[in-house]
Amino acid sequence: MRYSLKQLAVFDAVADLGSVSQAADKLALTQSATSMSLAQLEKMLGRPLFERQGKRMALTHWGMWLRPKAKKLLQDAQQIELGFLEQHLLSGEIRLGASQTPAEHLIPDLISIIDNDFPEIRIELGVQSTSGVIDGVLNYKYDLGIIEGRIDDSRIVQEEWCRDHLTVVVSAHHPFAKRERVSLAQLEQAKWVLREIGSGTRKIFDSSIHRLIPDLDVWREYEHVPVLRTLVSNGPYLTCLPYLDVEKYIEDGRLVALNVPELEMERTLSFIWRADMTENPLADCIKREGLRMMKGRPTVL
């Protein structure tokens, strides 16, 4: 073998960060040593692995081909090293991306279980919209993702974790709050504040409502659930959010769930990972413990 694990680690870090200087900081190397290792690897392979795009280093076609293979070699090397050091095989860092609902209501319990049973696993958590998590998995930002809804992409493997449902809510002072049932015509005349386009919540809501009401009066779109809850609690708006996000507000009377029989908005929360990802025991551990955590809970949250 003409290349070294150090050179592959440099390549992997530059691919992750898009910067030689940031890769050097991550690997505790000088910038000149990092540049030299990368140049040596490209020379040995006889192919350019990066091209400069402004201040960032972007992968070439060859770099994209090498990336998953380099990651597998580095992961295998880490497991060998930990094994000979007599450490627990399930140790190291995993990058987890999650959309807002699971991040707020489910991930804390999951991290607590991992911390208790596998204390040598470090979870780096990123919280984004569903589309952001998917992009992060595809771009190697995350090793494992947790998203809302379904995805149809051959580059991604999806495994259902659990199910939840969306509900339409208003403030306790809204005229609709006293109604036993709200009609589609009334929804069409209402003022709505919703999650941003691209979020899993918005995709499910749009797919359910647009077949019934083609033109909804959407006044505002926001990324953060607390903003929407406060707007609805204090104003004349309707919103649609996961029940997990509004459950406590309904229980204490600040929000009221509307009965709209025509709307069916159950959805899945799923683990996702790249189809080309090699065996990753840390990701497998998180998935296994996540499924175990949900045993005994309601089928639909």
Describe, in plain words, how this protein is organized in 3D.
It holds the Pfam family LysR_substrate. Keywords: DNA-binding, Transcription, Transcription regulation. GO terms for molecular function: DNA-binding transcription factor activity; transcription cis-regulatory region binding. Residues 1-60 form the HTH lysR-type domain. This is LysR family transcriptional regulator. This protein is α/β, with parallel strands linked by helices. The protein has two domains: 5-84, Orthogonal Bundle (Arc Repressor Mutant, subunit A); 93-301, D-Maltodextrin-Binding Protein, domain 2 (3-Layer(aba) Sandwich), CATH 3.40.190. Helices cover 45% and strands 24% of the residues. The protein has twelve helices and eleven strands. The protein has helices at residues 5-17, 20-27, 31-45, 61-84, 100-105, 107-117, 130-138, 184-189, 200-209, 225-234, 243-251, 281-294, and strands spanning 50-53, 56-59, 92-98, 121-127, 144-148, 156-171, 191-195, 218-222, 237-242, 255-257, 266-274. The strands form two sheets. Strands 3, 4, 5, 6, 7, 8, 9, 10 and 11 form a nine-stranded mixed beta sheet that branches. A two-stranded antiparallel sheet has the order 1-2. Strand 7 (191-195), helix 9 and strand 8 form a beta-alpha-beta unit. Helix 2 (20-27) packs across helix 3 and helix 6 (107-117) packs across helix 12. The model has no long low-confidence stretch (mean pLDDT 88).
